[in-house]
Batch of 3 targets.
Target 1
Amino acid sequence: MPSGFTLPPHGTPMFPNAERYNHSTEYANKLVDRIGQTPAWIALRLGVTEKRMRYILAGSRTIKGDTTEILMSYAEQFCLECLAAEAKAAKDRARSKAAASPASDA
């Protein structure tokens, strides 16, 4: 299992490749940090419940004292990677726009 995934440059199409499956809680949290939105916002876009998103980020759930490991699916991982790539592209666009704007003399 790869330790991580490098997001492609903006404009490069992303294609699913389950050989890159990394279900680790650390990777899920890293992607959520890159996205820069709340888990509730992300869950809505992934089509999962907020509870499912919390379980993915925690790596487990405990019900009546019984703890079960929770792993994100590859489909969930790919969606998170797509959201992270778009968040990075949006930041890059904002930086480029700011750099292209003339500095104000205020």
Target 2
Amino acid sequence: MVTCPKCKTENPDNATNCKLCLINLALALSHPEQFGLEKMQDQKSEEVSESRARVEEQNRKKLGKKRNAGAVIFYSLITLGIYMPVWFYKINKEIKEHDPNQKFSPGWATVGLFVPIANLVAIYNTANRIKTMQKADGVQDLISPGGALVWAILFFIGYPIVVQGALNSHWYEHAKNAAPADSGKKA
């Protein structure tokens, strides 16, 4: 269990946010001063270190794969479109693993690609899920779900460029933000 430093609520080990106050646990445990929290007492410092290590390790595991959007298009073309739903499922699964608070099924999202009108909703919602992750991280340059939908309708090959580009940026920022914590552990 991970104890929230703000409200002292016990959260599951795999929680990214506190279930009561919704604070980002990895950030709050590693940088409590940014949240107006005082450092934990000395007797709890070891417990905090262990909790922080568990949360950071889980967050590292939950990062999605950085893909080349050109490769997604290339594989889709040489497989006559079969790779596109595979890629769509994979990115939705990675989003779900990274942010379990988003309530959807990657499988049903992918099935929606094969149903008229539902396919437009699935395409829009996937971009919107990425936007939700970006907002949670305080990113200023957000993906436009409507723009991604237009790219999918007008130039279907443009959709992976927009969506995978936004995901790659998100995964890169998370990996970059986790790097200072890693270097501090080795010292």
Target 3
Amino acid sequence: MARLCGRVATAALIGCALIGSGVGAAQQLQALSKDQQEQIAEILKTAYSEVRKEYYDPKFQGLDWDSRYREYSERIGNAHSMNEGFQVVAAFLAGLKDSHTYFPPRFG
């Protein structure tokens, strides 16, 4: 479990580093660029894979983990800022209702 938290935290750090790459107020009203969507998708994929590999409950709290991943992958296209993209990742993990498995999005 500690490894899982560490890897999800690593994904969070990557996300925080990406936020510093320059998302201005004007960009927040526009859709994410292809590159930004790919960055968020990679963070989501890492969270999905690490939970699948390391999570203590093989039934994922009753969630269909693969279906959930596909659903939240599609939501990335609706994000208008990196913060909204990070919120997609956070919401994806929040479905586990586990205080040890989360993604803290950076609002700013």
